[in-house]
Amino acid sequence: MYPINTLRNIALSMCRSDYVFLVDVDFIPSANLHNNVMKSRFFGKYFLRRNESRNITLISNSNSSSVSASSFLRRQDNVALVLPAFELIDSVVKNVHIRPQGSKSVVWNMSDDHSIPQEPADLWLLFRKEQARPFHGQICKHWYFFFIEWMNSILWSEYKSEYYAVEYDKNYEPYIITKRKGLRKYDERFRGYGLNKVIHIKMLAKLDFFRFFVYGNGFVISKEHNKTQDGISWRTDLKKRKCMQWLGDRINEEIAAGIGTPTIT
């Protein structure tokens, strides 16, 4: 099977930027996403915050312990900016303005910047026409950030917010921007389709106490496509599914015991 996580780790090890965007290759970012994120309040607050060196006393119910500020702030700085993911739907859309009982075919050209949504408001219009939807709906938990809440946060002034926090949930696998140094590597025991990103995000949440914030001024989008053969076999090949589930259960036990993949130095 395709060594997807091995290739992801090679890319992370060869990368020379301070921050990385973990996203599938077939997604296109919204207009000016890079500049918007770099200039955002989130970036200034969570990614550019100065780490001061001093001792901080942490009080628990039973005792107190003194830890270095760098160790404490590293945990506090473990944040990820979630980019909402959507897909465009190839469909036949009824339009009475074209012909009385006619329709027009909508086939998206992802190479044409003028045909795909560039701003959240463009996406909202397509959503109302049922020409766009959250990526994979509720199947892969990209829906977890709640589409309506996201739209409320960016379109109406009484709700408007550049970003907002969400809680980690089982099977959550968002596309994220985060710091590269100290990021855990992907588990290379996973090959092909199934659990590879889910387990990685779980390690970040459970072992490194990552906090997740949904970005309100951008998104990524892809064209709806047929399921891959590997994805189909995940659902139809019982033996393969059992093997993958066994591996997932074993790694979940490791995570519960505090064991995870190495981090990028």
From TrEMBL:
Q: What is its main location?
A: membrane
> Does the record's keyword annotation contain Transmembrane?
yes
Membrane association type: Single-pass type II membrane protein
Q: Which GO terms describe its molecular function?
A: glucuronosyltransferase activity; xylosyltransferase activity
Q: Which portions of this protein are annotated as coiled-coil regions?
A: none
Q: Which residues form the signal peptide?
A: none
Q: Name one GO cellular component term.
A: membrane
What are the entry keywords? Glycoprotein, Membrane, Signal-anchor, Transmembrane, Transmembrane helix
Localization, per the record, is: Membrane
- GO BP: any one term: protein O-linked glycosylation via mannose
Q: Give one Pfam family, short name only.
A: Glyco_transf_49
Q: What name does the UniProt record give this protein?
A: Uncharacterized protein
